[in-house]
Amino acid sequence: MSPAPVIIAIDGRSGSGKTTLAIELAARLREHHKVSLFHLEDIYPGWNGLAAGIERYVTTVLSPLRRGENAEWVSWDWARHYDGETRTTRPAEIVLVEGVGAAAAAAVPLLDAVIWADSSDADRRARALARDGDTYEPFWDQWAAQEAEWLAADDVPARADVHVLNLADGTAPDDVLQALQYLPAVAPALLPELAARRGLQLLAERVEARPEAGRLFAALFGGSPNAVWLDSSLDPAGLAPEAAERSRFSILADDGGRFGQAVRHSSGRTRVSTGQATVTTDGPFFRWLDGVWGRRVLRAPEAYPCEFTLGWLGYLGYELKRETGGNDVTAATPDACLIFAGRAVVLDHAEGTAWLLTLDAPEAGDWLETARTAVTAAASAQVAAHASPAQRASAPQTSAPQPTAPRFAARDTEAGYKAKVTEAQREIAEGNTYEVCLTTVLTAASPAGPQGVDPWPAYLDLRRRNPAPFASFLRFGGLAVASTSPERFLQIAADGRMRAEPIKGTRRRDTDPGTDAALREELESSAKDRAENIMIVDLLRNDLSHFAVPGSVAVSRLCAIESYATVHQMVSTIDARLRPGMPRAEAVAACFPAGSMTGAPKVSTMAILDRLEAAPRGVYSGAIGYFSLNGAADLAVAIRTLVVSALGEGAAELSLGVGGAVTADSTPQEEYDEIRTKAFGVLSALGAGFPTG
Length: 693
Hints:
Oligomer: single chain
């Protein structure tokens, strides 16, 4: 008797390419494993024998293989239309079983993974008849009716671990193999394939250029359904050293190319799309993240100054707090959306260079050439943008219809928000919390057509009006995120250095220099704002200490004032060093969500916020950034953030979260004025005003 194998079923309707997929997948797996392959078409007892064939397969093939024993089974003689010879399928490290019904309900307890292959009805019929037209064509409708009846009672696609759209272009086997590595029941058997992945080579090219970033993103990734631009839109020239460091790099990427992937997590379920395959796993997000990130897989190229060496980029939504001590609340948007970027452009604004990064793959050379050309063109556009007025006047001019300014509605009226401030202060007076970061949301409907808000030009206008060190534009299919966040949530360097930079305390900017200076001075001298900031600093010191080298947690800046286009803000910096060997994803989880968006103490205050706000926050209050293949991460707090969710047929919903910290010294009117101030930057870029009432 052999050890029990890993058994993978490849199921799907006739003509979906299951047989070819199984044969090609077996060929790849045989590079490192002993593999057995069984085809259900060899055991069906005739053209009306789907149900009987499934029963034969489970009892005479699958059950003994599951026990690690030889499977002795009777084949079907399709020429004589009768039972044929007895055959043997031997167990192996990996057994692939393919055919209609391979993952039937009776088989599921004996399987380790289920792959569902799909294609359009027209493609399936054409493929099936092209292969077996002489014998199959008279029975196509009969067999299809059996499939339909079986699937109506046994919904295999709904419980499949991996779905693949089989385009018959040769990509499906590699896509499926990459997807299988995310399944806990299968991954241990695929260690050689995982090792090959960890042996990836990073190709890097430095280009001396200052491309116009928006034009470059549009050229390279404008047509990508999933793309991310981590946009340090605040010019680092003339900034204080700390602010200049935060504003040095921009990262532009999509999920294209051989290694590209898209990840969505909602309420304990993670879905990863890789090429034409999609794999679904259950479990906490941070556990999933720990499994795919945190090891130093790639090192930075020589003289490359940025911590990002390709990896995962996107957002973590506030409702992931269910995994870090908060209540389980369901959001309308995914709890996390990420892409895995196997290629990207990194702009170094300090040095005036563009770094082209790609994992070594057959298409890498072509992509580097395309990216190089795009950088050069975008750099020329940047030069043209700084041409003389006469030169700009002679350039071709284009005009686009202007969208109608959206009319936002607030979840809370002014009176309602002030009442919640008072209730938060009651919780403080009773000793249940020290500080409550109360939020609300503004929403608007965006119609289809030219009068609606297009997220891309809206973001370009937003970044022009409100440049910020952690601005970003994210696109995940019908979901777009446009953010001009000034606040770093957490940075983890490849060597283990950690940094958090909470912001607490805000004043508006004024066009009059004297008034503006007075507002800055008012913030700097405010005892209330300093108290808010210091409470969050203490909370973050505690969060970081869980995974830090003892004695390494230090506050290097306390209550410093930084000025941005529309606001002055009070910022502190907490540094620490990650203990060697600690799981980096868990270090992120220990600090999530940002204390500046919850209050203190964090867990009990989140429960108070759930009751007061009575609604999910979604993307807002979460984090936006990257998890790099060298173990580094840099995440911003998702504030000053517009979320655009497609509703179908071109219409969309706009959402803007705003909030502020409530303390014992707060006044309801000042707290309400603060959320108006914080909303101004995004609303003004849309031509909208803060809702009244």
